[in-house]
Amino acid sequence: MNARFTLDGRRAFVTGANTGIGQAIAVDLARSGAHVVCAGRSSCDETVATITGEGGSAEAFEMDLADPAEGAARLEQAGDLDILVNNAGIIRREDSVDFTEADWDAVIDVNLKAVFLLCQRFAKGRIASGGGGRIVNIASLLSFQGGIRVPSYTASKHGVVGLTKVLANEWAGQGINVNAVAPGYVATNNTEALRDDPDRSKEILGRIPAGRWGQPEDIAGAVTFLCMPAADYVTGTVLSVDGGWLAR
After folding, report:
1. What is the extent of the structural domain holding 100?
2. What angle do CA 151, 136, 105 make, to 5 degrees?
């Protein structure tokens, strides 16, 4: 096996690993040799069972990022880590003129504030150990576009891209690579309503050159690559995995 494309001996921490994209990322990292700490506000037992059933190594870890500071503090309980994947996120939909402050704060806290605090806590540990590390933040097509009726989500995902770049600038000298992956339209619970709407689904598919909805595994492969030695010189980048949506 080419050692540049393996994660043997690495320990990874994945938020939102209980379902969807986060689950696929956790499974893919484990298949590449990493021990994966699967974190979520609901049970990650299914993800752990999938990994261990394939002969991989994983553990479940409960963490609710509704309180970003508590989430960051609990990161230390996971022990020494080499990889952090900030995947957990929430969304609220409403016309901007009616959008509530509570919904604004809830989304920003989970999607942006918690991401920063987890990155900060992870980096402090890695810098102290001198071991370097990898951070991959999950952005969105709405890191580049506006969307409609999702003001806090759009703002948070724009923020994730900016945060990724500033942290990459600051921590590259300590051997910590910070990148982001921006998923396109992926078949998950979050997009179920769109896929069930024949007109909206047709409209979306008509814009995607690949002609299909993405699968969680499509995103997982990109994340895993960014965590591998083969990506040692990749930092501060945002990798769009969207079937060509942004190129259209």
Report:
1. 3-188+216-237
2. 30
Q: What is the pTM of this model?
A: 0.97
- In this prediction, residue 190 carries a pLDDT of 81
Segments of the chain scoring below 50 in pLDDT:
none
What single-letter amino acid sits at 129?
S
Whether residue 107 is contained in a domain is answered as yes
pLDDT at site 93: 93
Predicted confidence at residue 191, as pLDDT, reads 87
Give the pLDDT confidence score for residue 194 in this predicted structure: 86
Q: Residue 34 maps to which CATH number?
A: 3.40.50.720
What is the distance between the alpha carbons of residues 31 and 51, in angstroms, rounded to a whole number?
A: 8
Return the active site residues.
Answer: 153
- Identify whether 144 is part of a domain: yes
208, part of any domain: no
Within-domain flag for 45: yes
